[in-house]
Design brief:
- It contains 27 helices and seven strands.
- The protein is mainly α.
- Keywords: Membrane, Transmembrane, Transmembrane helix.
- InterPro entries: AB_hydrolase_fold.
- This is Lipase family protein.
Length: 778
């Protein structure tokens, strides 16, 4: 693979002698849009478009007049044929995307897997990092299902249905009350209520399997030119975008873990009752055997999750069919046995107090804290092996994000439990309510929000100082223009706000550290006192008691408000396409990566988009022998880079890369250093024939690529002027807008750079550069 500087340029970056703007043969510009989505009509600036290839989810479009442009390439003399790849329906298509909001913690912990620091020669440590993240993801699945069990089994079937006053207020629970007949036995109530978390588990399994078939089952291009490992990033490996084996194995393990959680919730109360003195000996033995079987099943699940992770050196198409089918079926059989055991007749058994949920949630909180702490130690060790000064949080971004995933899971679990408890009990306080740990966790939300408010104030102060510093730069850049203090302040303020993106790691670090410490305090308080914060502080100083009561009440209200907002937002997104596109922006960023840590996370659209782009580029260049500019904006530039890494050499040498508003280095390079770090981007520069990157100082997302050594200036064009004109001119009689992250193609520099890239390409293999010849801008 030739370096971009090894190809002979046209003189002064212009057109080769005797060639028009399109050069010899066919020329194509493949446009890839960014987050938020768009339409082919907007991308191609033409109301008449036709679909060239693809389906209703993702497709390639052209202008109607360009549908058969390859038949007469010489007839088009004004540039390459524009072609648009539209992938927005992968993340914001139909209304079911709104349900993905419930999977937010799973998506966040999956991101933590890919935030691993770069390291060379530390394969075992890298595997340990992936293992810890997968175990953290497994704990989130158990936490979600445990929350469903808390609502359905504990609050509804055990507490409310077992309390006559609560059952009378909710007539639909009448048949479950002790006076309601056969179903009134506590064990049978629990067995019937177990249908709810079991159905939730089945829904998650079905959605994971269905979305894998729709999104992630795309075979990557193969052939004789397929390479096993072509550089310092795993994105160049043939099997990176096709991990069927790991996905199926994790799906089976998480499904089994969820079913075992339900089985433990159903059978634990009955087993505890049977162990009391005077209980039936046979049932006591059956309870011990059931708990032993559940423990063995849990061990099998953990073993499956701990096995080797992704295999990326080749497409991993093996399915492990026995394990994938046998593990969930065995867990389902244990659930059925647990329901039968719990439903056995036990005269004199009455439901009182709470189910042992406080122990369950406490164990999960402790396990998650330990996993995140060990993960931080592993990440630090990896970062010290291969330090990267641009890596976010010095390599600790993954553990920090994993901590936020656990916090999101806890907030969602506690919010559901608190709201359902209030709805069932009203204000009569006749039920014990949810576990006290959930109340303690809700009570730490106000101080955490106070910390975030302080951080926002710090950001505002930082933006004010940056804006003052930028005013001089704006005046210097637009020297000779008639001064306008208001205009200068606006431009400087936009630049300052755009620069705040680089302060994001500090906000994440403070939030994650505070979350870990406050969560540990909540666990200690709930375990030591066994009471809610307000009750535990009853004998303390009035100020302490008042603060505890205020934090408890405010935290309960905030967690309930968050749950209501989540449901409302999801309901609106289900009906409103514009709201669904807004949520789709979140998925555009968060679901780029394969589901390597959690199989129930929203599906990875890149496992469909990257093979789409790779197939299109390889087939078009192979059929025409022409030149292609792969043009990506924002998140589209990340997809373009991923596709370029996957191309065979014969196609790659006919492709130029044009990125604009690109987060490749500014966001992906800092947050995902193992895959988009300096070495990876430098290898991409060597792999493609030529690459040019455009950015603005007013852009909060895009930025320079900052390649190390001599490659940096060759890729990055100096920052574009924004706005194009300071005041009113003959070319801009009306005030020019401040574009920020949008409308890069409207800048004259875009067409200029595209023309130069096409001039650099040749249908045939380019000749090497002469010794001593200065390198072109590429």
């Amino acid at each position: 693979m030739e370096n971009a500087q090894q190809h002979r340029p046209a003189e002064d970056g212009g057109e080769p002698a005797g060639e028009g703007p399109g050069g010899p043969g066919a020329a194509l510009e493949l446009l890839v849009h960014g987050v938020g989505g768009t339409t082919p009509e907007q991308m191609l600036d033409d109301p008449r478009t036709v679909r060239v290839t693809g389906d209703g989810i993702a497709a390639v479009f052209r202008r109607a007049d360009d549908a058969d442009a390859e038949r007469d390439p010489g007839a088009r003399r004004d540039g390459p044929v524009p072609e648009a790849y539209v992938w927005c329906n992968l993340t914001s298509g139909n209304g079911t995307r709104a349900l993905w909001l419930l999977l937010l913690p799973f998506m966040v912990v999956n991101l933590a897997h890919w935030m691993r620091p770069s390291a060379h020669g530390r394969r075992r440590t890298v595997r340990l990092y992936g293992l810890l993240v997968r175990l953290t993801g497994l704990s989130l699945t158990v936490l979600l299902v445990a929350a469903a069990c808390e609502v359905a089994l504990d609050l509804t079937a055990w507490q409310c249905a077992g309390t006559p006053a609560c059952a009378d207020r909710h007539s639909w629970l009448g048949f479950l009350s002790p006076e309601g007949g056969w179903w009134g036995a506590p064990g049978r109530r629990l067995a019937l209520a177990a249908v709810v978390p079991a159905a939730l588990t089945g829904l998650l399994w079905f959605l994971s399997l269905r979305t894998w078939s729709a999104y992630e089952s795309q075979q990557p291009p193969g052939g004789s030119e397929a390479e096993e490992d072509t550089g310092p990033t795993a994105l160049s490996r043939p099997g990176f975008w096709y991990g069927r084996r790991l996905g199926a194995r994790l799906r089976a393990a998480h499904t089994a873990a969820a079913l075992l959680t339900v089985a433990a919730a159903v059978g634990s109360a009955a087993a505890r009752y049977d162990r009391e003195p005077g209980g039936p000996a046979v049932l006591a033995v059956l309870g011990v055997l059931l708990e032993a079987a559940l423990a063995a099943g849990a061990g099998a699940v953990v073993w499956v999750v701990c096995r080797r992770g992704r295999s990326e050196r080749r497409p991993d198409g093996d399915a492990d069919r026995r394990l994938v089918r046998g593990l969930p079926l065995a867990a389902l059989a244990l659930l059925v046995l647990g329901a039968l055991y719990s439903g056995w007749e036990r005269p004199g058994w009455e439901s009182a107090g709470r189910l042992p949920g406080n122990v369950t949630f406490g164990a999960l909180t402790l396990a998650q804290g330990l996993l995140v702490t060990v993960l931080a130690g592993v990440a630090h060790a990896l970062h010290r092996t291969d330090p990267d000064r641009r890596a976010a949080l010095r390599g600790l971004a993954g553990p920090a994000v994993a901590m936020l995933a656990c916090a999101l899971g806890g907030v969602m679990s506690g919010g559901v439990s608190q709201r359902v408890s209030d709805w069932l009990d009203g204000t009569r306080a006749s039920l014990p309510g949810p576990p006290v740990l959930l109340t303690w966790q809700a009570s730490v939300i106000p101080p955490l929000l106070l910390l975030l408010l302080v951080m926002c104030c710090w950001l505002a102060r930082r933006a004010w100082h940056l804006a003052r510093a930028e005013r001089a730069a704006v005046e210097e850049e637009y020297a000779g223009e008639t001064g306008d203090p208001g205009r200068t302040r606006r431009i400087a303020s936009v630049r300052a706000m755009a620069a705040l993106t680089d302060r994001g790691p500090r906000i994440l670090a403070a939030t994650s550290a505070a979350t870990l410490l406050l969560g540990a305090g909540a666990l200690v308080g709930a375990t030591a006192t066994g009471e809610t914060p307000g009750e535990a502080a009853r004998g303390a100083h009035p100020v302490v008691h008042g603060a505890a009561q205020t934090a408890q009440a405010l935290g309960s209200w905030l967690i309930g408000l968050g749950f209501v907002l989540l449901v409302t937002w999801g309901r609106r997104a289900y009906k409103d396409a514009s709201a669904r596109r807004t949520i789709g922006i979140l998925w555009d960023v968060g679901t780029f990566w394969p589901r390597a840590a959690h199989p129930f996370a929203p599906p990875c659209y890149a496992e469909r988009a990257v093979p789409d782009l790779t197939w299109r580029i390889a087939t078009w260049t192979g059929a025409t022998g022409g030149r292609l500019v792969l043009s990506g904006h924002s998140q589209g530039s990340v997809l373009a880079a991923a596709a370029a890494w996957q191309l065979p050499p014969s196609a790659r040498r006919r492709v130029a890369l044009l990125t604009y508003g690109s987060p490749l280095e500014r966001l992906y390079g800092r947050w995902f250093p193992a895959h988009f770090g300096p070495d990876a981007l430098d290898s991409l520069h060597r792999d493609v024939v030529c690459w040019r990157n455009l950015y603005r100082r007013t852009d909060p997302i895009g930025g320079p690529v900052r390649l190390p050594g001599d490659g940096g200036p060759d890729v990055d064009r100096p920052p574009l002027k924004d706005p194009l004109a300071y005041g009113r001119t003959a070319e801009h009689p009306l005030p020019a807008p401040i574009l920020g992250h949008s409308d890069y193609r409207a800048d004259p520099a875009f067409a200029e750079e595209r023309r130069r890239l096409l001039a650099r390409l040749r249908p045939e293999v380019p000749a090497p550069r002469r010794t001593g010849e200065p390198g072109p801008a590429a």
